[in-house]
Amino acid sequence: MFRPYELFVGLRYLRAKRRNHFISFISLTSVLGIAVGVMALITVMSVMNGFEKELRDRILGMVSHASITSYGGRLEDWESIREQVQADPRVLGVAPFIEKEGMLARDGELSGGMVRGILPEEEPAVSEVGEQMIQGELSQLVGGEYRVILGSHLARALRVGVGDHVFIIVPEGTVTVAGFRPRMRRFDVVGLFDVGMYEYDRSHAFIHMEDAQTLYRYGDEIGGLRLKLDDMFGAPAVSRDIASNLGRGYFVRDWTRQHANFFAALQIEKTVMFIILFLIVAVAAFNIISTLVMVVNDKRADIAVLRTMGSSPGSVMAVFVVQGTVIGLVGTLLGLVLGVSLALNVEQIVPWVEDLFQTEFLPADVYYISDLPSELNWPDVARITGLAFVLTVLSTLYPAWRASRTQPAEALRYE
After folding, report:
1. What is the pLDDT of residues 253-305, one digit of tens each?
2. pLDDT digit string (tens) for 66-90?
């Protein structure tokens, strides 16, 4: 237990005298080192959280929270299944789809892609494609009119725009005496979308459900149902519940399984970045150790006087624990304030820096996320500041223990 004089002496040693300005300078660098480390950790973790959220939102703009298909690849009595699924209060939207591979051709240009049949009036309930249209609208897809909406990069690869036409060739056909003849159909381009993910903008095309059923010979069947849930992070649990309610023969897959490797890689990158940046705090903690060791050597006579006046080794140790703890606390709090302030304003600060130096950190023609998103996660902030403070407190133990071992007779022999 710290007594008042231990706290007083520990704080008194933080102030410089004429002969120990260097020690106080080292203390100041320790405070700044901890502050910079904590600030960098909070800012970088917030930016990485922002990137993860931005990528997740863009992916979920195309990929639903969950999807229901059958092991045969087709759903027959899908209307009754939809009614059963919609009865779950956790399901906000349901929309049918057919998604198959196809080849798109136009005047010698040929590109593979995924052709998705949708109902334009129901698709907004499960995706944000309608909000990412750069030309045209989903409502322009009309059954029997054979119209198509292309991703922006796919349209660029085919050199087509709104008003042009493309041929969709499916990997199914008929065998004639002349050989295998693939099935194809001409579609008019009525719109373009851009969700900001090259993977989807380069490969996806949307057509009306009725046209997809005709093209792929599905009849009245569909490929599956796409679901939007009230909590995207609860998708695995909801998917398991829906699968158990539907029974055998149906396969329910959620978005975390579709992109498990991608988000696992992001998590590993965040962990590695945390460890690397935390080394800044570790270096500052070593500065605290060196500072206290020099203070102990400088104050050997003072320690001896305290011992002769009746102070126990524990009291002497407490004096230097107070000094190191104050350094760590001030540095951690300063880094907390700077880090939170920077994380909350990084989206405004980065454009200002770009204008100041006439540069662009994330060029729009190279990166699909051209700004620097940030999402402050308070549990991350608590973990960072807590670990930093604990590390600084631990760094005081060895110098303080060494001070408590000082023998008064040896320290005062040459005084």
Report:
1. 888 887 777 778 878 888 888 888 888 888 888 878 877 777 777 677 777 77
2. 999 888 788 888 888 898 898 889 9
Distance in Å from the first CA to the final CA of the chain: 31
Contact 223, 70 (CB under 8 A): no
d(CA 165, CA 327): 70
Length of the chain measured in residues: 415
- Report the distance separating Cα 237 and Cα 255, nearest Å: 12
Burial, 280: exposed, middle or buried (Cβ in 10 Å; 0-12, 13-18, 19+)?
Answer: buried
Q: What sign does the CA torsion over 184, 185, 188, 190 have?
A: negative
Report which of 151, 86, 92 is spatially closest to residue 124, judged by C-alpha positions. 92
Residues 191, 192, 193, CA angle at the centre, nearest 5°? 130
The answer to whether the CB of 114 falls within 8 A of the CB of 203 is yes
DSSP percent split of the chain into helix, strand, coil, nearest 5: 55, 20, 25
Burial of 256 (0-12, 13-18, 19+ CB in 10 A): middle
The whole-angstrom distance between residue 345's C-alpha and the CA centroid of its chain comes to 18
- How confident is the model over 372-413, as pLDDT tens digits? 788 888 888 999 999 888 888 888 888 888 777 777 666 566
Residues 6+ apart with CB under 8 A from 81: 68, 75, 225, 246, 250
Kind and range of the H or E element at 171? strand 165-176
- What pTM was computed for the model? 0.71
Q: Which amino acid is at 114?
A: M
Nearest to 285 by CA among 402, 390, 401: 390
Q: Facing residues of 110 across strands?
A: 105
